[in-house]
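#structure-requests
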Amino acid sequence: MKKGILCFMLLAFGVLSAQQTLDLESLLERLDSLPDSSMPFQYFLKQHFTNEESQLLMDHFSKKMDNSNEKPEMLGNDIFYAANVWNFNHAFGILSALDTQDFEILNTDGFNLFLGDDFDGNGDLYALLWPDDMLAKVNTEDGSYEVIGPLTGGLPTSHLPSGLAWDPTTGTMYAMSTTGDSSDAKLYSISLVNGHLTPIGDTTTFGGGEWLAITEEGKAFTVDVNTDAFYSVNLETGETTWIADLGIDISFAQDASYDFESGRLFMAAFMDGGVSQIYTIDTITGELELFGDAPAFHEFGGFSTPYVEVVLDTQEFDLESVVAIYPNPASDFVSVNASQDIEVTSVEVYDISGRSTGKEIISDQINLADLTNGVYFINIETSQGRVVKRVIKN
């Protein structure tokens, strides 16, 4: 569904030489007529165009990327880990949600691309590598990765990996694969020890399977790039259920991640013309909301929100009813209140990425005034155990 990119592209860059313009126009018309695909864009070009034609198209799009200067509105206060697979140049880095045009590259690898990644319950980031079809463990400090093993046990030769997601309710990592033309998808559980895939149920009866995301309740979701539709996924059978049409035209490699702390599903969408945008998706209605514009021609095959594990034992569950914070949301001070027989011994305030803010409790109050607006977690140690409270600073 490559709608109307020809006119936009030609106007954006002016006119080349007469012969080049004619060639470019013909190539863009051919590109416009081809079906959507889950493959990274450069591999898609290799399948349908000669080396010379592919180079002309890539040069054309690269000029547009160089001329893109728009900056989005400042949004949020957290970060995303992302892997840009555009133009054969894998680049892993940090995408700021304060400015979603700010992508800090930590590492590059010119061969294997990330096509799906996610954090497990221990806070370790794993990624599916393609075209070598392997599982890797990623160092989020420098972007390097260690290969765990090949994707054995059931990946069809016609499929490429497309999604990876952790289910916190069962402690299971799931993977998804799809064909290059997004006509068929499969669901698996995957071993983080050796990369072995265990197929789940029958082949899912829909095209797409472009990415996989799982909520804190163990509910799974994906999209179909052919129909631009949003689906739920049954993790026991692999069956999918249509929820809604997205209302945007997605194509080629992309990924999504569910943020356990904020309870939001984020999608890094890549569209024709090199448009890259970050959206949130309502998991009940499928409604999209634009979160921010990413840099042009950033095709995020890997995209994950930082994972912060919040561990509560039985004591802490009992403490929920006797330890309170207020007001919530708060703009400056938040008070910590416990029943008379419970003593608050210390507090620690963490941001959504798990970093300590250094805030202290003074006279039962915590001063949040100089913190950036957003979601924070207050770790409260008491004489009867520990409890974690979520507060919104506005």
